[in-house]
Amino acid sequence: xxxxxxxxxxxxxxxxxxxxxxxxxxxxxxxxxxxxxxxxxxxxxxxxxxxxxxxxxxxxxxxxxxxxxxxxxxxxxxxxxxxxxxxxxxxxxxxxxxxxxxxxxxxxxxxxxxxxxxxxxxxxxxxxxxxxxxxxxxxxxxxxxxxxxxxxxxxxxxxxxxxxxxxxxxxxxxxxxxxxxxxxxxxxxxxxxxxxxxxxxxxxxxxxxxxxxxxxxxxxxxxxxxxxxxxxxxxxxxxxxxxxxxxxxxxxxxxxxxxxxxxxxxxxxxxxxxxxxxxxxxxxxxxxxxxxxxxxxxxxxxxxxxxxxxxxxxxxxxxxxxxxxxxxxxxxxxxxxxxxxxxxx
Length: 345
Description:
Mean pLDDT: 76
Number of domains: 1
InterPro entries: Luciferase, Luciferase_dom
Shape: elongated
Low-confidence stretches: 194-201, 226-230, 289-293, 295-299
Radius of gyration: 23 Å
Order of helices and strands: HHHHHEEHEEHHEEEEHEHEH
Distance between the termini: 69 Å
Number of helices: 11
Pfam family, one: Luciferase
Structural class: alpha+beta
Number of strands: 10
Strand order of the largest sheet: 3-4-5-8-10-9
Domain Luciferase: 217-332
Strand content: 5-15%
Region (Disordered): 97-125
Protein name: Luciferase domain-containing protein
Largest sheet: 6 strands, antiparallel
C-alpha cells in the first residue's frame, strides 16, 4: 500500500468520524476492548498452564497467540468423528470394531469430554475426579490418585521388562513429565540391519519411525502435575498412536488430537480448513496434505513437529479407566517398537 492509499484511508476514517462521531467511537471502543480483553484472558490462561516448551512470559505468549494458535486445528477436527478425515490411514477402520491394534477391546468412556485448553502447553483442566462417587470428595480423590500410581507403575514395569527397547526418563517435550522412549536401533540409524539391541524385536514400521523421528523416540508421557483447577492433579497423557488407534481413542471419548498434530512436516501447506467443508464434502482434509505426508513402504525420512496421531489422553479417574489407559499405552508401545507389550503382573 503506497502513501496515497494511506492518506485516502485516513481521510475516509476522519470523514466517517465527523459524520457520526458517537457511533464511530462506540464501535472503535468495542473492537479495541474486545481485542484487549481476549488477549489478556489468553495470556492469563497461557501462564497458568504448566509445562510446554515456551517461556511463561509475554514473549512466549506472543509466539503462542500470534504464531501457533492461528495454525491450530479446531475442536471439530480434534474431538469428533471428523478425525478420520484427518487421518487418511484410518479411513478403512470402523467404529463398530472397538479393538486396538494390540487386540484389546476399548470401551466407551463414561460422561462428557473434559475441558481442554492451550496449544503449547496443551492441557486438560477439569474432570480429574470421578463424579460417580457422589458426596465423597475424599474417596474420589483417592481413586484418582490410585489410578495415576497404577499408570506410573505400569510405565516403570514396561521399561524394566524391555530395557533394550524402551527407556523411562524425563520427557524432552514436557520436562516435568515422566516419559517412555523407544530406543530401538532402527529409530536411531534408520537401518534394517539386526543389532544386539534389536535382535529379539520386530522392526518398527516406516510410519512409526517417521512419526517418532521428530520426538527423539518419545512415544508417551504422563503429566502428573498439579492442575490450575482445584479439581485435582493433572494425570493426563500425550501419546503417539497408530492411526487406527488414534481414531478409536477420539471417537470413544478417551482423548483428542493435539491442536498442532501433523504440523508442519505432514502438511503440504500450513492451512487449517474449516470443519464445515468436511460436512459439505466427505473425506475433506483438515489440512492440505501433501503426497509425502505418509511415508511409503521401506522409507522412514526424518520429520519435524508433532505427528498427526499425537493425542491427549484424558486423566484416568478410577481403576477401570486406568486399565483402559494402559491398553492404549500398550498400543502406543507396540506401534513405537514393533514388539507386543509384555503381560502385566
